[in-house]
Amino acid sequence: MAIPDLVPIAHEPDYRTSTIGHYDKGQFFGSVTATLTDGAGAEDDWYRHKRWYAVLHRFDADGAHIDSDIWFAGTSETEDASIDRAEARLAEWLDALPGRHFADIAIRLFQVEVDGHVFGLVDWSHEYDGEDHAEFLPDDLGFDPPWDGCYDT
To answer: What confidence tens digit (pLDDT) does each residue in 122-140 have?
Structure first.
């Protein structure tokens, strides 16, 4: 079974996919997430390299990526404040979506690069010994058969 053209993602209130759904122009996926440069986690000052972002991806009704807002909120040097800033920015963006309601979505693979990091839903099968696998990055949400919207973290 190959990765489907539309990968379903289940809305889970109060968890990792609590800010996904539909609005007047299509679908959206919002999150507060962090990136870490490869190898930086082993360094004593890793917290300077962990970067927090507010992210809002928008898709048309057919699941094709339209655009993304990705805003750097700070590093883990001031982690709580960085997360608070990112959550506030995401809330502003979500409040501005006309007709917004939280719900399951189904989207196509896509990716954008910001600050040298990939954001999106990508084919990650090469990381799973060729087994069909899609990964939402940098959120680390993994999707596999039976493609029912559930994910692994």
So the answer is: 999 999 888 999 999 999 9
Kindly report whether the global pTM for this prediction surpasses the value 0.90: yes
Number of other residues whose CB lies within 10 A of the CB of residue 51: 22
DSSP secondary structure letter of residue 63: S
Closest CA to 35 of 48, 49, 14: 49
> Taking CA 48 as the corner, what is the angle to CA 44 and CA 49, rounded to the nearest 5 degrees?
95
CA 71, CA 46: separation in Å to the nearest integer? 20
- pLDDT tens digits, 72-87: 999 989 989 999 999 9
Would the CA dihedral through 11, 124, 47, 52 be positive or negative? negative
- Quick check: 82 and 53 in contact, CB under 8 A? no
Amino acid at 20: I
